[in-house]
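Aim 2 progress update. The chain analyzed this quarter is reproduced below.
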Amino acid sequence: MDKRTLSDMARCNRTAMICHLVEASMITITFIAQLLVGSRGLLYSLLVVVLAMGPPLMELFFWSRDKESPAIKHLVAQGFAVMYTVILFTTTNNMLFLYVFPMIVVISVYNDKAYALKVNIGVVIENLLVVILGATTGRFGFRDMSSGMIQILAVLLFCAYSYIAAATSETNSREKLQQVKDAQGETEKVLGDVSRNADVMRRGINEIHAKVEQLQSASETTKDAMGQVTIGATDTAEAVQRQLAQTETIGEKVGLVSTVASDITERMEKTLSVLEKGKADMDTLVGEVEVSVRNSANAADKLETLNQYISEMNTIVELINGVTSQTSLLALNASIEAARAGEAGKGFAVVASEISELATQTKSATTNITQLIGNVSGSITEVVTVIREMIDGINEEKEMSGNASASFGTIEEHTYAIRDNVARLTESVSQLEAANQEIADSVQTISAVSEEVSAHANETLAAEQENMQHLLTIAGRSQELIALTQTEEQQ
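Predicted structure tokens:
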């Protein structure tokens, strides 16, 4: 198995098992060699070989079934302890106590100071007993007290130092493990914060993208409305030009009536002879007056319709103002979120700044448009009032002309009354001429205002088209940011 796939316990078991097997094999070879040269008995040598090789073979068995088996750890210590005890209390060579030193080092791989303490205490006690009994009986390879003291001190110091090393290693490992856990906790916390921030930014970008789509839809509506306003303003200008031509015709007719009235005054004696012609002229005048009434009413209706369009423009401008305010607020929120995001949010902060600047420009433009619309609406209201007054005057003149036409049947009987009527007619014609001049002036004003409205409508339409391009750019950037946050979240 690859080392990288072994757990810590399995790796420790393998190291301890191999080292135990190597030392047991060396001890076995040593005792077999002594058996061959005749310095050891057969049964004693076989006993040592069994005690030396038995535990490693059992360790191999447990290893084949479970590489993390705790039995391997205990077999290494206890199996070697049995064999070590036998040879220590049956030897004639006091140097055999050194066999335990490599195994004390081996068990330190488990990094278990309690386990090491038990083993070390057992080793110290056994060596202490061997030295004491050897000094008392002269057996167990005892030479002298100096050698015995060296053996006890060597074992005691080695065991003590190995325990201290194991305890230090365990403490270091525990502290490193705690540091790793703390670092892992901090890492998980940072990753959690990053994930939450990415999620918040993704939601904010989605909201901004939705708002941009709404603003884009509103801009489309505004653009269509401004197109309709442009068409309406053009139609209004054409209608005003037609009304101006009709007003000039009315002026000509009024001049004609004035001439006729003067001629009637000068040629009173010829009234009867020109009665028929005068009656025809009056009929013509009545017809023209009716046409003037209809045209004036039509002009007033169109102006009122234009006023309604302007009111709709006010509504649209208010909608743009509302969208602009929301855009400014969203841009501010986006700038704040981008600032919180730090370096990762700089690109988004630039986009938010551009959105805020565009919203400010749009708000300024809509304010100017609102003022112009208010001025146009006021002028149109005044023109409508004048036209209504003109219509009332024309209706009055129409009634008077009708009365005059009806009176032609009795002119012969009322020649003297005709003189008075002609005087009144002359006065009425003067008033009509003045009213007609006012109408002409008002129509000129309406024409100029209509041209100005049309020009501003065209400018607004061009600005909205430019805004649409900016909104499309912003929408594209928003899609890129959304895709980026989704990619980061997946990673």
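The two ends are 32 Å apart (CA to CA). DSSP finds nine helices and no strands in the chain. These observations will guide the mutagenesis experiments scheduled for the next reporting period.
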